[in-house]
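Protein modeling request. Please complete all fields; requests missing the sequence field cannot be processed.
Requester role: graduate student
Desired output: 3D structure, token encoding
Chains: 1
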Amino acid sequence: MRENTPNMVGVDISKSHLDAHRLRTGEAARFGNDAAGFEELAGWIGAADRVVYEATGRHHRAFEEALAGAGLPLARANPLRARRFAQSMGRNAKTDAVDAAVLARMGAALELRPTEPPGGALRDLGDLTVAREALVRDRVAALNRQKGLRVALLRRQCRLRLERNGRQLKAVDAEIARTLAGDEGLARRAETLASIPGVGKATAAGLLAAMPELGGLDAKAAASLAGLAPVARESGQWQGRRFIQGGRARARRLLHMAAVAATRHNPDLGRKHRDLIGRGKPPKVALVAVMRKLLLLANALLRQNRLWTPRAGDEPAAAPPAEAAEDAGGPKGQPPARAASAGGQPPHGPGDRFQPRPDTPNTGARANLEGWMHT
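Delivered output (375 residues):
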């Protein structure tokens, strides 16, 4: 290998071991997927431009934390994109050693950006919000099943299951509130998101976990990351319809429920939705447009560290019914509308306007999170 070849190291992660490949020299090695293996791997890597690995759920977490703690620059790759990259190279074989070599070459060819592993509070918030969504799905399934049960034993078991689910959901909500209250930055970000009519407290926590990059992206990057950017389909003189695709499905699910509530309770987004419907847009297209504008509004507010405030002349919106939002796993209520400040109204795209809020220290973020999920 030439000396000017990027010093990329690809690491394929499995449950029991790690396969590493150094692009510059072609060296390969295998280590255990445990604390001793992480230490040996960090010593074998030494210095590197980037250590590229695939997201593998729970199997990459300890690896990520250990190598980040050793000061190595990490880049987490999407497994599907890594497989497509291997196919574009003509590598149809799929073994751990081949995957490690492909990851190293992919990091060099695509110049993958560094990945910052989530901190302790954000990591815990991610686990808790995923568990909450699972409990909500389980409850919806049980409620639907309960309607058709005729056997007394099954009705009793379903009732007990729903009662247990309710207790578990309440405990998870309380732990989410404690996790947010224990981190000043997360508490402020959650308060900012929950200030937007249509975004409830559970949805705000889920968005923070699903898209921690919010507030640090430009509008196009945020829409693309959530899979809400229409993709062009053109060839020669032919122009096809554009569709959204890819992105983070979990963030899209959360934004979908928030957008449904926002069309009724957010003045700006409600007007936008009615305008699109009035122009003949299909209801799903109009709702996706609201999802995108809601995401961009949240991104802008987090970037500027400001709470949402109604535009001058807008009537405060009523809160959505708690029962319907709770059954969907969405917001259980909206914060009261805040009076606009005396400043100007910088627009965030057509129809999305918010008043600038005086920059004040976040002194009450922890106190505001007390009992946060059950107000």
